[in-house]
């Protein structure tokens, strides 16, 4: 502000108008308290506000999420309703969104809807369009349905994570554009798998690749195992952390290259020097809370920062309370005991992908081969730090 500006005899209203029209530092400070959707509207007021809004968006690099569990009292899945309400108050501009929902209530009546043209319900594929409309144009949205969901309630990094092996549940993790972090979604089927496409996705010939979250669908189909090996072989030779599993269905990105019922993989490739990761495998013989804690505590050896870090739990549908003498939430509770300030997300699926591995700075601890990346009746517990 000009030190010679004299506001004597000027009303408070005129003074405020002058400041909000000319003093960028004040405007920028005020805009840090404005949710992103409103911030984008405010940016249209004038050039000063537009520039201030852009600077605020550039520093909003802390990821966030919305989660929900049902049953929903509204038309549509419980997550759709929660997102419609809470995305208005998000303080970031999503660049990539990972959505996980339970397959029973999100897609259980998919074929019925298509055959009978039934009225819209939360079982219909229109739920996918409803989700997509909630996010900005150009945002990469990956929507996946799984037999069960693991989530942390919205609003608190230290909230208790919950395992939902049945019932309506889901979450959406929103990643902003972050300096030093490149997140690329990918989708391959038997028609699109090639060395050039793998390179385009950042999965091969990419020295900055740090973490790959990978999800296979229709894995029981003939030829699916060989196809998955084509993807996993180059990744097993890399220094990246690989974690994920087999899911029930994938809704977006759109599967234009392959027909309904075809097998394939989708995922996120995370590259950049700021990214670190670690994972451990809870093998079949880990079947007590004490054994689960001993295994999960091995993640502590990675010494990853807890700020801006996510936990992922990819478990077999045969585990959960079925594996721990009807004790519920054993692995999620154990994770929170060891990492009380890191939110946990994941699913119960039809096979797990991952191994014991630590990825930090310029080194990787524990190389492995393709065969030891695929498992059954296990849980892959993973930490991903985004800098």
From TrEMBL:
Domain FIST C-domain: start-end pairs: 224-356
Highest taxon above the source species: Eukaryota
Record SUPFAM superfamilies: F-box domain (SSF81383)
InterPro entries referenced in this protein's UniProt entry, alphabetically: F-box-like_dom_sf, F-box_dom, FIST_C
Alphabetical GO biological process terms: positive regulation of proteasomal ubiquitin-dependent protein catabolic process; protein polyubiquitination; regulation of skeletal muscle fiber development
Signal peptide positions (record): none
Database matches in CDD domains: F-box_FBXO22
Organism: Oncorhynchus mykiss
Pfam family, one: FIST_C
Stated name of the protein: F-box protein 22
């Amino acid at each position: 502000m000009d030190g010679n500006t004299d506001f004597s005899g000027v009303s408070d209203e005129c003074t405020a108008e002058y400041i909000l029209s000319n003093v960028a530092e004040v405007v920028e400070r005020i805009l840090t308290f404005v949710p992103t959707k409103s911030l984008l509207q405010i940016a249209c007021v004038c050039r000063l506000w537009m520039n201030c809004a852009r600077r605020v968006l550039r520093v909003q690099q802390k990821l966030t999420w919305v989660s929900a569990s049902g049953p929903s009292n509204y038309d549509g899945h419980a997550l759709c309703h929660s997102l419609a309400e809470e995305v208005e108050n998000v303080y970031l501009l999503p660049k990539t969104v990972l959505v996980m929902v339970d397959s029973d209530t999100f897609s259980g009546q998919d074929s019925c809807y298509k055959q009978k043209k039934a009225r819209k319900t939360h079982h219909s594929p229109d739920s996918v369009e409803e989700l997509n409309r909630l996010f900005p144009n150009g945002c990469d949205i990956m929507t996946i349905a799984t037999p069960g969901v693991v989530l942390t309630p919205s609003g608190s990094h230290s909230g208790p994570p919950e395992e939902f092996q049945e019932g309506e549940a889901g979450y959406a993790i929103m990643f902003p554009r972050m300096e030093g972090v490149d997140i690329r979604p990918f989708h391959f089927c038997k028609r699109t798998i090639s060395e050039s496409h793998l390179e385009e996705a950042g999965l091969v010939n990419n020295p900055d690749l740090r973490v790959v979250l990978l999800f296979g669908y229709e894995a029981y189909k003939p030829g699916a195992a060989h196809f998955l090996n084509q993807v996993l072989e180059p990744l097993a030779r890399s220094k990246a952390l690989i974690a994920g599993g087999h899911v029930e269905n994938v809704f977006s990105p759109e599967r234009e290259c392959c027909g309904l019922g075809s097998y394939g993989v989708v995922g996120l490739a995370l590259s950049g020097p700021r990214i670190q990761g670690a994972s451990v495998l809870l093998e079949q013989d880990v079947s007590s809370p004490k054994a689960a804690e001993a295994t999960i505590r091995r993640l502590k050896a990675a010494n990853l920062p807890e700020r801006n870090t996510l936990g992922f739990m990819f478990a077999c549908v045969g585990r959960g309370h079925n594996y721990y003498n009807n004790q519920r939430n054993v692995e999620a509770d154990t994770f929170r005991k060891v990492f009380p300030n890191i939110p946990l997300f994941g699913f119960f699926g039809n096979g797990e992908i991952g191994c014991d591995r630590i990825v930090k700075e310029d080194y990787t601890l524990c190389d492995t081969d393709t065969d030891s990346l695929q498992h059954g009746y296990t849980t892959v517990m993973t930490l991903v730090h985004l800098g």
